[in-house]
Design brief:
Blueprint: H1 5-29, H2 41-61, H3 66-69, H4 75-87, H5 95-115
Helix pairs in contact: 1-2, 1-4, 4-5
Length: 117
């Protein structure tokens, strides 16, 4: 089975939903003081976006090879690393995190390039 562009785009969309879910979890967990506080809007929306991500991912798998599409999920680490630096000023984007992001992008690119051969 050859991986279609639709599958790749759906996995990328899934990574955005994962990223949004994780950012919302971080925002929501900072509001938790008591057990009832776990039902705050950012935390609940974070779970919702994670669920949407899973559904989009399942649909994406219909359009390509698992060995090509699944590693693209690693780019969610890239989005979270970059966005958390700007949203949460306390999250630094140091040289090690930047190198890790670069390696993830390189690895995903190599897998995509290797699937064409």
């Amino acid at each position: 089975m050859r991986t279609k562009k639709r599958g790749i785009l759906l996995v990328i969309l899934s990574t955005f939903f994962i990223c949004l879910g994780q950012i919302l979890w971080k925002l929501g967990i900072n509001k938790v003081v008591t057990l009832m506080d776990v039902f705050n809007l950012p935390l609940v929306l974070g779970f919702l976006f994670y669920g949407i991500s899973a559904l989009v991912l399942v649909i994406a798998f219909k359009h390509g090879e698992l060995s090509v599409l699944y590693p693209i999920l690693a780019t969610s680490y890239v989005w979270v690393g970059i966005l958390s630096h700007f949203i949460f000023k306390t999250d630094s984007l140091n040289v090690y995190k930047s190198a890790g992001i670069g390696l993830i992008v390189l690895g995903v690119s190599l897998i995509g390039w290797g699937s064409r051969k």
